[in-house]
Write a structure and sequence with these properties.
There is one protein chain. With 253 residues, the chain is α/β, with parallel strands linked by helices. The protein has one domain (7-185, 223-243): Rossmann fold (3-Layer(aba) Sandwich), CATH 3.40.50.720. The chain has eight helices and seven strands. The protein has helices at 16-27, 42-49, 64-78, 102-130, 151-171, 189-200, 206-213, 222-233; strands spanning 7-11, 31-36, 54-58, 83-86, 133-138, 176-183, 244-247. Strands 3-2-1-4-5-6-7 form a seven-stranded parallel beta sheet, with helices on both faces. α1 packs across α8 (222-233). The longest helix is centred in the middle third of the chain and has 29 residues, at 102-130. GO terms for molecular function: oxidoreductase activity. This is Oxidoreductase.
């Protein structure tokens, strides 16, 4: 197993990609802390997979004291953090810059950017003191392209690529690798929300439009994103840091 006895902390563990990542990391031998804003989904998943392998903690990733507690709880429970998957995110509202309120921007940036920064701030010292580790930040295909009516989301996903590159340079001397995974359209609740938002805005069949411009012609599955996360968390990617990994069916080409 690629991650036997490694300790993995995953935020947004209750979402579609998060749950797939939890299952994949556990299948590769890891001990996993499931972090999410509530435990309604994560606790049943812990019960299913086994408390000897998993635990969960409630966290609002935009709140510094809660992120600090999440990291401390992980170390207290499992002894270390070898892999950190900064996966928590929110899509925000669909609408143009002119027509959406600034509060939408503030909420999206708080979760998607501040949340990642706080995770790095509290996890990196643990990894440094433990001799290294791997950090995987969930960006998006929206992190490398512009699109109308999703400016807040796209901005946040561009921003975490910048955070990743800075963190990779700062932490390489400590044996810490930092990369982003950039999913395209994936079969998750978030994508359903985005589809509904575009439909309400009169944009037609959003899924059909996305599939039409995706070379592989389909949405991705959460497990396909989780596979890339496991690769980046394992020693298979031991010479990989500071990079953007697209998992988008070729949509960014």
């Amino acid at each position: 197993m690629k991650l036997d006895q490694k300790v993995v902390l995953i935020t947004g563990a209750g979402g579609g990609i998060g749950q797939a990542a939890v299952r994949k990391f556990v299948s590769e031998g890891a001990k996993v802390m499931l972090a999410d804003i509530n435990t309604d989904i994560t606790q049943p998943l812990v019960n299913e997979l086994g408390a000897y392998r998993c635990a969960c903690v409630a966290v609002d990733v935009a709140e510094a004291d809660q992120v600090e507690n999440m990291v401390r709880t992980t170390v207290d429970t499992f002894g270390s953090i070898d892999v950190f998957v900064a996966n928590a995110g929110t899509e925000g509202k669909i609408g143009s810059i002119m027509d959406t309120d600034v509060s939408n921007l503030d909420k999206v940036l708080a979760v998607n950017v501040r949340g990642v920064w706080l995770g790095l701030h509290y996890v990196m010292p643990v990894m440094r003191d433990g001799g290294g580790g791997s950090i995987i930040i969930t960006s998006s295909g929206a992190g490398v392209q512009g699109s109308p009516n999703t400016a807040a989301y796209n901005t946040s996903k561009h921003a975490v690529i910048g955070l990743m590159r800075c963190a990779a340079l700062e932490s390489a001397q400590f044996g810490i690798r930092v990369n982003t995974v950039n999913p395209g359209a994936v079969e998750t609740r978030m994508m359903e929300s985005i589809e509904d938002g575009f439909a309400e805005a009169g944009a037609g069949d959003f899924r059909a439009m996305v599939e039409a411009v995706t070379p592989l012609g389909r949405y991705g599955q959460p497990e396909e994103i989780a596979n890339m996360m496991v690769f980046l968390g394992s020693d298979d990617s031991s010479y990989c840091t500071g990079s953007v990994y697209m998992v988008d069916g070729g949509n960014a080409t």
